[in-house]
Amino acid sequence: MTNFPNLYVKKGDLYVFLSVFKTKYAISYLQSEEDKKILKEGKVDFYSFSYDSTICTTIDKNAEKSGKGNLQLGVVNPHLEYTEWGWSKDGLGLRYYLNERYGRYEMPNLKNE
Question: How many CA atoms lie within 13 A of 16 on its CB side?
Fold first, then answer.
């Protein structure tokens, strides 16, 4: 469901899976014909995102904790370089994310900073 808002503004319409989800979990929502028209006409042209660093998790309680840089909880990835501020440099992670986003939305990606 975390991708639902992005899919909604890309297509400008509700997906079939949302109808199934609505029925399965007894969710209700209101959408007027005017809402449908506005969303259909206002579809996005590109996908914009921010990709700052990669976070790793582990079950090892003794692993070196991260939390510098972007202040997110995680552990240090020994395979990555880090900036002097503690932010990881992960070009492969960014490439993976770009591929996944393009595969999902089939539209240009714009990395914003």
Answer: 0
What would the pLDDT profile of 1-22 be if each residue is shown by its tens digit?
Answer: 567 667 767 777 766 557 777 7
CB atoms within 10 A of CB 14: 16
HEC string of 47-103 equals EEECCCCCCECCCCCCCCECCCCCCCCCECCCCCEECCCCCEECHHHHHHHHHHHHH
Q: Give me the residue label for tokens 């991708």.
A: 3
How would you classify residue 64: left for phi > 0, otherwise alpha for psi between -120 and 50, otherwise beta?
Answer: beta
What gap in Å lies between CA 59 and CA 48, rounded to an integer? 33
